[in-house]
């Protein structure tokens, strides 16, 4: 039976709507966001992201409920005022689109990840990465300041579309510590778990390295203590019960036996890593990457977007 033009257009509209609304994995809450997945953004989604500060888009706000335990596990675009965060994401989307297809390593996270080297900065990977992994074609989509929920949004809105990574390295959660007084540490840990679940769904054949949150500041500081508690909650989730997920705990590499961080491995802010810190991090990653990639890669060169927007993500 032949369909008339109206029926054909209606079916196409329904399919398109479902594509915009149905995420690849099940999240525990459905927000009022008009476009749940996909890139480019519709006009409605762009207005929703740009015109509303992130706190106005948190799960629960659409029904005037306070649901902080859901914040880290439900996608939410970041917000630095105006279009700045979205422009930064768009630049990384262009970078990913310029490098579609097979790659060796995909780096996912916040400023610790961004500072491996990024098109948002100098456009080249740092010395520690080049020394250990120069032969691995690597794409870095870290954005400074991102929380787990921001990474989830980026993964669902064009952030990795078209890539075929062999290994994905996820380090996220530090910035969620600012909200632990409201969300609790268990929710922060589940945010990391949800990011891992997202990349597992998108890249079922890839090996995923999930790192615990690095220590920072000092024992007795609430931020430091909440990181310890979040890592303990993350360990209890047993992410590596999935044979494709490999958990790396870097705490003893970056903190002494008494819990005090190893100052030489950090910049003066006691949060971000020094060149020596990245060397230590790379040393821990090398056995896993060499195991998964066999010491052979696709080559270290990646293509930068044709148009450089000059957007630089903040360092934290």
What name does the CATH topology of the domain at 84-293 carry? Rossmann fold
Radius of gyration: 20 Å
Shape by Cα distribution: globular
Number of helices: 11
Taken as a percent bin, the fraction of beta residues is 5-15%
Question: What structural class do the secondary elements suggest?
Answer: alpha/beta
Question: How far is the first residue's CA from the last residue's CA?
Answer: 59 Å
Widest sheet: strand order? Answer: 2-1-3-4-5
In CATH, what is the homologous superfamily of the domain at 84-293?
Answer: SGNH hydrolase
Description:
This protein has eleven helices and five strands, in the order αααβααβαβααβαβαα. By secondary structure, it is an alpha/beta fold. Helix 5 (127-133) packs parallel to helix 11 (275-293). The longest helix is centred in the last third of the chain and has 19 residues, at 275-293. The protein is globular and about 50 Å long.
């Amino acid at each position: 039976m032949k369909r008339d033009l109206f029926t054909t257009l209606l079916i196409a509209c329904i399919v398109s709507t479902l594509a915009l609304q149905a995420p690849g994995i099940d999240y525990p809450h459905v927000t009022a966001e008009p476009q749940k997945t996909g890139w480019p953004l519709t006009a409605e989604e762009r207005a929703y992201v740009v015109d509303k500060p992130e706190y106005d888009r948190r799960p629960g706000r659409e029904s005037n409920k306070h649901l902080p335990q859901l914040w880290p596990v439900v996608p939410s675009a970041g917000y630095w005022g105006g279009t700045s965060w979205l422009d930064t994401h768009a630049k990384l989307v262009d970078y990913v689109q310029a490098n579609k297809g097979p790659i060796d390593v995909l780096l996912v996270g916040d400023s610790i990840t961004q500072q491996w080297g990024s098109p948002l900065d100098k456009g080249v990977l740092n010395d520690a990465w080049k020394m250990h992994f120069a032969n691995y074609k690597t794409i870095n989509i870290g954005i400074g300041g991102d929380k787990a929920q921001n990474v989830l949004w980026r993964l669902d809105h064009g952030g990795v579309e078209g890539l075929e990574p062999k290994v994905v390295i996820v380090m996220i959660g530090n910035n969620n510590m600012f909200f632990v007084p409201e969300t609790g540490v268990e929710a922060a840990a589940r945010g990391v778990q949800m990011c891992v679940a997202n990349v597992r769904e998108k890249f079922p054949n890839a090996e995923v390295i999930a790192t615990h949150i690095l220590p920072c500041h000092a024992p007795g500081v609430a931020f430091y203590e909440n990181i310890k508690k979040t890592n303990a909650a993350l360990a209890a989730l047993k992410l590596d019960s999935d044979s494709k997920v490999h958990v790396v705990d870097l705490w003893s590499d970056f903190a002494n036996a008494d819990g005090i961080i190893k100052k030489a491995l950090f910049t003066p802010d006691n949060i971000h890593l020094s060149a020596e810190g990245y060397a230590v991090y790379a040393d821990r990653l090398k056995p896993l990457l060499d195991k998964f990639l066999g010491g052979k890669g696709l080559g270290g060169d990646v293509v930068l977007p044709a148009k450089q927007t000059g957007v630089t993500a903040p360092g934290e």
